[in-house]
Design brief:
By secondary structure, the protein is α/β, with parallel strands linked by helices. It has two domains: 200 residues, Spore Coat Polysaccharide Biosynthesis Protein SpsA, Chain A; 80 residues, no CATH class. Helices cover 44% and strands 18% of the residues. Strand 1, helix 1 and strand 2 form a beta-alpha-beta unit. The chain is globular and about 55 Å long.
């Protein structure tokens, strides 16, 4: 493990924020507690709108600075951060994430110990307000959550809630797609791995993420991700309405649902029932958004 400031690579932490000053405050507090040498990392926050005056939150942290990006979308904001970043390593997280104290240090160590790896995905631990009594929405997110390990292993891709990348890779692969409202992080990492760059997963590179417990926030998340998949054409049926495509949304994903039942968060029949109800709710959200998009609607941001 690197312990001296001189031998530690410089890291740029990039955080887009949209309508979430409260989450950003918690995230910034966590970043001020990092064990990584404070002189060897910077925090770049990109205000993407709707946050009010967040300059006081940024100014409390000596190694942080605030940028603004008027183009709507977190990927446009991340690209703005990339253009200004000074780091050899770029570390991405979100304004609603809480990095562990050793988040940067663990990520740098993992990259250092695996020299052939170009990208590193870390663990995202989803938690409920009251771990003993999660509601239906929280239970579902704890189970489905952010499966970064599975995404890395099965699809060679990852999200930017917890991702470290050598800066030079963006110079070779290019920036994130700014036309996508969701999924451009997975698209970019797939692009990188398809060109032979190696992506690894490290559970010790950890951030925590509060589960959404308000129905509106839960619904809008799946509206947004459905739009991202639509834009990328990842579901062939999304670009045309057929009987078979509609029926697909009316039938719950039984196989994948049953595969999650052994999860520790589903230890009681009541929790299992919560999970099944949430799965049906998501199917309905995706169906409604698919119909809206297929009839000429445009993907929305949140």
């Amino acid at each position: 493990m690197r312990i001296s400031e001189e031998s530690s690579p410089f890291v740029s932490v990039i955080i887009p924020v949209y309508r979430n000053p409260d989450g950003l405050r918690i995230c910034m507090d966590a970043l001020q507690k990092q064990t990584y040498p404070v002189g060897r990392f910077e925090v770049i926050v990109i205000d993407n709108g709707g946050n009010g005056d967040i300059e006081p939150l940024i100014s409390r942290c000596a190694n942080a600075r605030l940028l603004c990006e008027e183009i709507p979308g977190s990927y446009a904001a991340r690209n703005t951060g990339l253009r200004e970043a000074r780091g050899e390593i770029i570390a991405f997280t979100d304004s609603d994430c809480i990095p562990a104290a050793r988040w940067i240090a663990a990520g740098v160590d993992a990259l250092d110990e695996t020299p052939l790896v170009n990208l590193l995905s870390g663990q995202v631990d989803v938690f409920a307000r009251n771990p003993e009594k999660p509601n239906l929405l929280e239970t579902h997110q704890i189970v489905r959550g952010f499966h970064h390990e599975r995404s890395v292993r099965e699809e060679a891709c990852s999200g930017t809630a917890n991702l470290l990348v050598y800066r030079e890779l963006f110079e070779k692969i290019g920036p994130f797609r700014e036309d996508l409202q969701s999924g451009a992080d997975f698209e970019w990492t797939r692009r990188a791995t398809s060109e032979g760059y190696l992506l690894a997963y490290d559970a010790l590179t950890l951030v925590r993420h509060p589960a959404r417990f308000v129905l509106r926030d839960f619904v809008l998340r799946y509206v947004r991700t459905t739009g991202g998949r639509y834009q990328q054409g990842l579901d062939g049926s999304l670009h045309r309405l057929t009987i078979s495509s509609l029926l697909r949304y009316l039938v719950p994903p039984v196989r994948s649902t049953l595969g999650e039942l052994p999860h520790h968060a589903l230890g009681t029949p009541y929790r299992k029932l919560q999970f099944f109800i949430a799965e049906y709710l998501i199917q309905g959200i995706r169906l409604a958004e698919t119909v809206r998009l297929a009839l000429g609607g445009t993907p929305i941001r949140y």
